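2024-03-11 09:14:02 DEBUG pipeline.ingest accepted 1 chain
2024-03-11 09:14:02 DEBUG pipeline.ingest length=239
2024-03-11 09:14:03 DEBUG pipeline.predict start
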Amino acid sequence: MTTHTLLVARSVTHTGGHDAVHRLAAEVTRALDRPVHACFLDGAAPSLHDALDAAQEQEATEVVLVPTHLPPDRRLDVWLRRAHADWATSRADGRHLPRVSVSTPLASAPALVTAIIATLDEPTTPLDGDPGPFRSPVWSAITTHRRHVLVCRGPRCTAYGANRTADALTRALTANTLGDDDVLVTDAGCLFPCNLGPLVVVHPDDTWYSHVDPELAKRIVTEHLLHDRPINHRISRRR
């Protein structure tokens, strides 16, 4: 039996947080001497779907999901189960799927209390000196961007490929030298029409693009954002 373990986390507000989950997975791999990987329900790569695909490709017979989020997050538990059910249904094409189970959430593990007590026995670091300003005049200036682009990174859009969409959009903006003064891109949580994901919304145009794959993301940049030509046949209309 080949067992893979997936640390399943939610998105955090900075890339370093995502890196920390990957580092934790690497350290657990060394301790257990078996595969342990990080994945995310939303906002970061790889998605749970992609991680499960990788485990299957590596012929894992069992996959254990470890909800890895502090503090406890019921939403993580619910979406983890929904995402797995969607993955299993969409992969039901005759291939053998690994058995997937879920552990006690990290936030509820009794050993977490032990770990906190252990840290209190370690030397502490005084908070002194000058760490830099908390406020700055620079952080009072609204950018002069002409357009604001929202990229949905919610759980469903992430399952549908929003990580690749966001990456393609960023690369296309860079390739066409469009910075924050031209286009301000913001990762968003759920934008509601989840079945149409991955979603990209362009304001102030109030233009909603649905099912945005990497190729469409590039076209949104080169046609709509660069040359003011919305891709009309790919826009989702309001009812």
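2024-03-11 09:14:41 DEBUG pipeline.report The beta strands are 3-9, 36-40, 62-67, 99-102, 147-152, 183-188, 200-203, 207-209.
2024-03-11 09:14:41 DEBUG pipeline.predict end
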